[in-house]
Amino acid sequence: MNDTSRLLVAASVALCLSFGSGCEYLRQDMANQPKNRPLSPSEFFVDGRSERPLVENAVARGALADDELFLPKDSNNFPLPVDLKLLERGEERYKIFCSPCHGLQGDGNGMVAVRGMKRPPSYHQDRLRQAANGYFYDNITNGFGQMLGYSAQIPPRDRWAIVAYIRALQLSRNAKAADLPAELREKLNQGATPAAKPSGTNDSRGGSF
Amino acid sequence: MAQIFHRSTNFIARFSVYSALFLVGVALIAVLAVARSPYMTRQNISREQPLQFSHKHHVGDDGIDCRYCHTGVETSAVAGIPPTKTCMNCHAVLFNNAAYLEPIRESYRSDKSIQWVKVHRLADFVYFNHSIHVNKGVGCSSCHGQVNQMPLVFQANTLLMQWCLDCHRNPEQVLRPKDQIFNMDWRAPDNQEEVGAKLREEYQLRTTAELTSCSTCHR
């Protein structure tokens, strides 16, 4: 081999080594910038978190508008207009956050409760059917018994949507066919014979969305 | 004056020049292939976690919705790793004396975060936003794979820019109806192209030119 080819071989070997195994990810510095991304660790703060805990009594921007949503525990008012949109939102949020324990129908037989927790009370018992709206809101916010508060996971507006949906669940067990609008009643009459659903099947569990 | 080199050296010289060029080519291809291999992208490699949390159990067996823990996914750029308290919502009562879960209880008592190992790592110059994807019809499993079947989470896709662009160029192939976004078992129907095109209109996705513009993802 002459000098030129030797040089070429050496260069290509060097290229292989420096790119192939030298630097992980073949990345440049811009891929690892000296900045914090959400939840990234930090050496700057003693507790190692770049995410700083809130100063006590801090109020998030825009959160003042939520003031009207905070009702006392014994209040039976409902601070939002109740429409289908709110109920659907409530249903969705209920399925995410509540159904694992309380079950899809609110009987307290959700999948997680079935795993061996003390079962939460059914929403369909008299005590809870008489309870004020604020009672449910307060329990979602601050927790009750074994249930820890959900204020960090569910914003106030969604909590009220869930309260509305729980009310709808409660009503569903105590509604008369006569209360339905004419068209729905007809549908009910048509479907009554074949769709006589067995109650308390897996459908009411939280495990099968 | 006599020739210094024998005639045969012509061949040797040519051979070494061409083979050197060939080697450089092979080396380049090798570098690119390695860069795209799971060795570099870490695709399909499960990571050990400080506590071997199983998505298969919590999502697959228990049916807990993604959003129970990843609460930010619909409203912010990051889906979020839940605080230890979210674990305690159930495990304060359930398996509350299992040695396996001691790191959780220790973290809750001492207010020290559990340092979960990041599985999906994007370069710092990528400004990925979960909420826009979730709200415009891209489901979790389209990128993350079927997490409900992963005892330990691994990266189901390469996360290479090429992979992002595959979808940004032709989002119709993955768009789902709104109520299927968090369904881990969703499969594209046979007429996905058709449904996707309709959904693209309904969700008012931007044009392909805008979706593939540099500043859509890089700022």
Task: Describe what this molecule looks like in 3D.
The complex is a heterodimer of chains A (209) and B (219). With 209 residues, chain A is mainly α. In chain A, 41% of the residues lie in helices and 2% in strands. Chain A contains seven helices and two strands; from the N terminus they run H-H-H-H-H-E-E-H-H. In chain A, helix 2 packs across helix 6 and helix 5 (133-142) crosses helix 6. Chain B has three domains: 8-36; 55-81 and 118-217, no CATH class; 82-115, no CATH class. Chain B has helices at residues 8-36, 38-41, 55-61, 66-69, 84-91, 102-110, 130-135, 140-144, 161-169, 192-202, 208-211, 214-217. The model of chain B has no long low-confidence stretch (mean pLDDT 93). Chains A and B meet through helix 1, helix 2 and strand 2 of A and helix 1 and helix 5 of B.
What's the gist of this structure?
The complex is a heterodimer of chains A (209) and B (219). By secondary structure, chain A is mainly α.
CATH architectural name of one domain in chain A = Orthogonal Bundle
Fill in the CATH topology of one domain in chain A: Cytochrome Bc1 Complex, Chain D, domain 2
Number of separate helices of chain B: 12
State the order of secondary-structure elements of chain B, H for helix, E for strand: HHHHHHHHHHHH
Query: What form of chain A results from the Cα inertia axes?
Result: elongated
Largest interface summary: A-B, 51 and 43 residues
Gyration radius of chain B, to the nearest Å?
A: 25 Å
| Percent of residues in β-strands of chain A | under 5%
| Total domain units of chain B | 3
User: How many helical elements of chain A?
Assistant: 7
N→C terminal distance of chain A: 71 Å
Count the beta strands of chain A. Answer: 2
The spatial strand order of the largest sheet of chain A comes to 1-2
Summing up helix and strand content along with how strands pair, one would put the structural category of chain B as mainly alpha
- Level of helix content of chain A? 40-55%
Helix and strand composition category of chain A: mainly alpha
Major sheet of chain A, described briefly? 2 strands, antiparallel
* Low-confidence sequence ranges of chain A: 195-209
What is the number of beta strands of chain B?
Answer: 0
